[in-house]
């Protein structure tokens, strides 16, 4: 079979596979599921899932904060009328289970065999009887559980707590938000006067931004890579062919995702951008070598044969190391990171396959490029790279000294990097969504949920007096040293029933004095057990209960310290023969991710380093060469860790992937360099000549691919997500330092330690 027929057959097969991939890409959907960021396989996750079956999710709610008009308080009759209209609108929506609103709050009173609910607010009477407003406000601000939950301390804002159906997805969530925003506009609430927070809000914003930013990143990447390719090769095919190969790799990678039923989330949205910059590397090395051979006067067939022979091995090794950098992310227990590592790693390998099937096929079918003059003395970059090489040799002591000082300083600064995360870490501090969440932390209880399961000892229920007293002791601690701003538990239920039995007076809002009084309340408790708030806080048989609350999003470091203090309090101050407890909840699970971040990063880096070590040992049979190769790739990692410490960037879910990805990508050029060096050593008598020849041969590709990589990752700087921004900035920075180390430290280390020192002295003299 002729070479051209083989090329046509390859294009046919690749075209069919691309069509199949396109079919599965069409099945892809965007998704942001808060639950996906829980640590998969963790026993606490299994426990929480059982807990939600008993009591429901702790994040199935929507907060709507409403500020009173300027110069007025929330007890303004007109304001409360509009709040009530909005409450009625929200209550009638399909996915709203229950709603707590200032206009629906009532003080229950038990008389005879019935329960009467007396409203806290009487706005219709305020104009005729101004004293009623004062009486209502006084009662509300004396009643526990209302201020900070529904009313702000300064009486300038109220909050509607809207309980939604479990695991509300984006389409119905968006519909609910649209109805609420329409109602807000209809009832005269300007945008500056209301604030929305909760799972549905975060889900809607994240998915919409993912879609928009994916288009922006891809567009910027195409423009940037196209410009750099044109600057490098100055031919249409030198631009078009790499783009075709990379877009094919992206199509195949996303097709595999679609075939596996995986959706595009905050992490996998980076796959196309990653592939666009990473996948270009092999094509640049191939075309650079191909053009160089043509420049030396070789025929198209011979140039292609030499290119594939000399670039294939190095490209295969670099594809393995780069993909491994992504595959090591599969050690993470966080599903979005796991999926990102898996499918990006697969896409890198697919890019390698296309680089050595599709690209050669296209080069075969294209006519031989007409170069101006066949060069016999080397290509146009030789002069620049030769001068750079001599400057590196001449300033070797300065390079070693500066490198040592920078590394030492970076290690010191890296110790300042902390593992810390918050619920909305990926949004900048000035983001409107984050500002809305901050509003609820300032004016109300906050948005961070707290969950503690109450498990009475065998033979007891949550309504036993001893259990209630222990629960109350826990509540006091949580409201005090722990910082919980709102709490509810079976204690709340019993106190409320006792108050209802005593005419609704606030002085009766306390636990019964003894077991005899408690027994008198037992029959009345049954009157309230059908209420949603009762079902949410205790099982029907009373064998388990729930202490729930909200607080400020203090961050995982502070939360870990608070939880450690809480556990100490529970161990030493709570009688475990009466009541046992277990901390759970979505916030607790998110915090647990931090425990695994360092271990996952170390595991990933260790696997990467082990693989590079095995590759170098296989190529050179030398442990010394292994150290030589690792140093210029680990130095940039240390420097970037120092930059993180200097800039105060915390280690969190989104930034924990930086080091393994950066190392896997940065080592790519090193693998190309040493694989070419190995081939050159086979016909060069001097190590110096071999290093110099490799430097001139690989230098252009190293610089061009690094520019493309840095430029591609720099597009992520336009992201509105802090995590994505730092991925682009820090990986780009790593690659900048990496190419500097590649062109300075690597050749010096090879010449110093792979061969005797006098080799350099002879050349310089």
Can you describe what's shown?
The chain has helices at 3-25, 43-55, 77-91, 130-142, 170-186, 199-233, 236-259, 271-278, 280-295, 300-327, 335-355, 358-365, 382-394, 396-414, 432-443, 465-482, 490-501, 515-528, 532-535, 556-573, 586-620, 623-647, 658-681, 687-714, 722-743, 745-754, 758-764; strands at residues 61-67, 96-100, 106-111, 114-119, 157-164, 194-198, 448-456, 486-488, 545-551, 579-584. Helices cover 63% and strands 8% of the residues. It is elongated, with a radius of gyration of 33 Å. The protein has four domains: 1-28 and 235-374, Multidrug efflux transporter AcrB transmembrane fold (Up-down Bundle), CATH 1.20.1640; 34-203, no CATH class; 381-415 and 589-765, Multidrug efflux transporter AcrB transmembrane domain (Multidrug efflux transporter AcrB transmembrane fold); 432-551 and 578-588, no CATH class. Residues 243-365 form the SSD domain. The chain crosses the membrane at residues 214-233, 240-264, 270-292, 313-334, 340-366, 398-419, 597-620, 627-647, 653-674, 695-719, 725-754. One of its GO terms (cellular component) is plasma membrane. This is SSD domain-containing protein.
